[in-house]
Design a protein that fits this description.
With about 475 residues, this protein is mostly helical. The chain is built from 23 helices and no strands.
């Protein structure tokens, strides 16, 4: 009985089941992208070792830093390219397009003859990731009902974290050339499934295709069957009328006056843009993205007793638990409290890990009683609290906080900054570990977390339940 009640509540309610199915289909590309992200951390030490490398070449620390960072250069290109495609040709075309660079990744990994092949593969991974962060939050936000939008959008991060953990596992234990042969099926399956659901009704209304928009909304609200109740029909009609009026108003404003500097320089827009930039800084410079890419190297640096790749896989599982917690909490308790807890926890966790790293790297202290459990526990705490807030909630808040007139441009700009920040972080992190030590690097992340905590606590407004048409 409890199971039936569970299936008829929340995102599993019959009115939202198609939204859930479409979300799961669309996030297949995110799983594949996550596998590509997780692939690097256990594989990097192998590629740097003359004995363990599965390829005909080895890479040094500078090539390793470029291998980590180039994904972000591709991300900048992906942000702006897919933003243009999405606004010019619609959400579905951009969703189809994500499959191409992701498929190329696995061919390049398989046939790699030099480090340059891996560089190009990482740029393709950036194109996929940059496009995903633009297209999927907006697409999922448009098809989702207000009451479940936060949870459905959080599936984006859950799928990526599942992919990262899979990447950690298979790159640790599966032969190098088997991995791309298996994973390349995911973007192909994603492309096939993407042909099965319609363009969001908002986009169809912008194109003036009202009948198609009605069919699309009925599809996503699961009220297009003969057994649909009168109450569901009335609810659908109310939603469609509100949506049509909102889109008509948006189109009228856009036709009467194109975007101008005034749209970006008013108080609400400036505050939203600053909030978006702070969220991008929190997402990257609290350190989690760099930790995921260089996790095995971090555990090697603190001389943990557990095998570094085992620690890395444990952290991958913790990521998934953190994202599940976010999915459960985001529409119940709101976005702001999760971001506050997340920034505070990240500041505490990275500061504590920095202290441990200082004693492990710079002193002769005997840490054997702690090395088997304390480093992985601290890192698990950092990754968990980050995924509860600054990782999972950031994109939800970004879409909700930006005014609709500048949402497309503002989202692209913020995500362009995100890719630039990610490039800076991934390029600098291994060099900072090499020249300044892990402890100083961790304390820098703690300082950024503390500053973001101050901003979120004082200036961020709660966006739970806010209409995306405002």
């Amino acid at each position: 009985m409890w199971f039936l009640n569970f299936l008829n509540s929340g995102i599993f309610h019959k009115d939202f089941r198609r939204q859930l199915v479409v979300t799961l289909s669309a996030t297949l590309i995110t799983i594949s992208h996550g596998i590509g992200l997780g692939w690097l951390s256990p594989m990097l030490p192998k590629l740097q070792s003359t004995e363990a490398t599965p390829l005909d070449f080895v890479i040094d620390v500078h090539e390793a830093s470029w291998l980590g960072a180039l994904i972000s250069l591709g991300g900048v290109s992906g942000n702006f390219f897919f933003s243009y495609v999405m606004n010019r040709f619609g959400r579905k075309v951009s969703i189809y397009g994500l499959a191409l660079p992701n498929t190329c990744i696995w061919f390049l990994f398989y046939f790699a003859k030099s480090v340059e092949w891996l560089y190009v593969a990482r740029v393709c991974a950036g194109l996929t990731g940059g496009g995903m962060f633009v297209v999927l939050p907006i697409f999922l936000g448009e098809i989702a009902d207000n009451s479940v939008r936060g949870r459905l959008c959080s599936f984006f991060n859950l799928a990526m974290n599942i992919g990262i953990m899979i990447g950690f596992i298979i790159s640790s234990y599966v032969p190098y050339h088997i991995i791309p042969c298996a994973v390349v099926s995911l973007p192909l399956l994603y492309f096939i499934l993407s042909t099965r659901f319609p363009e969001p009704p908002q986009q169809l209304l912008r194109w003036g295709r009202e009948e198609a928009a009605e069919r699309s909304l009925k599809y996503y609200r699961n009220c297009d069957g003969p057994s649909t109740s009168n109450e569901a029909q009335r609810s659908y009609q109310k939603q469609f009328d509100e949506m049509r009026q909102a889109i008509e108003q948006q189109v009228k404003e856009q036709n009467n006056e194109s975007l101008s500097l005034t749209d970006f320089c008013n108080k609400n827009a400036l505050k939203a843009i600053v909030t978006g930039l702070v969220l991008m800084i929190a997402n990257i410079f609290t350190g989690t993205f760099a930790f995921i890419n260089y996790m095995s190297n971090i555990f090697e640096a603190v001389h943990t007793q557990l095998e570094p790749n085992t620690n890395t896989i444990i952290i991958g599982a913790v990521q998934i638990v953190g994202t599940l917690a976010s999915i459960y909490l985001v529409d119940r308790y709101g976005r702001k409290i999760l971001l506050v807890v997340s920034c505070a926890g990240s500041a505490f966790g990275t500061a504590a890990f920095g202290i441990y790293a200082f004693y492990a790297e710079e002193t002769d202290a005997d840490l054997s009683a702690f090395s088997a459990w304390l480093p992985v526990t601290l890192m698990a705490f950092i990754i968990f609290v980050a995924n509860v807030g600054v990782i999972s909630v950031t994109m939800v808040v970004l879409v909700e906080v930006l005014p609709h007139r500048i949402r497309a441009v503002g989202t692209s700009a913020c995500l362009g900054c995100l890719s630039f920040f990610a490039f800076t972080s991934l390029k600098a992190f291994p060099l900072m570990m090499h020249y300044f030590g892990l402890a100083a690097t961790m304390w820098g992340c703690a300082a950024v977390s503390a500053l973001c905590l101050f901003y979120v606590s004082v200036f961020l407004e709660e966006t739970k339940g806010r209409s995306i048409y405002n």
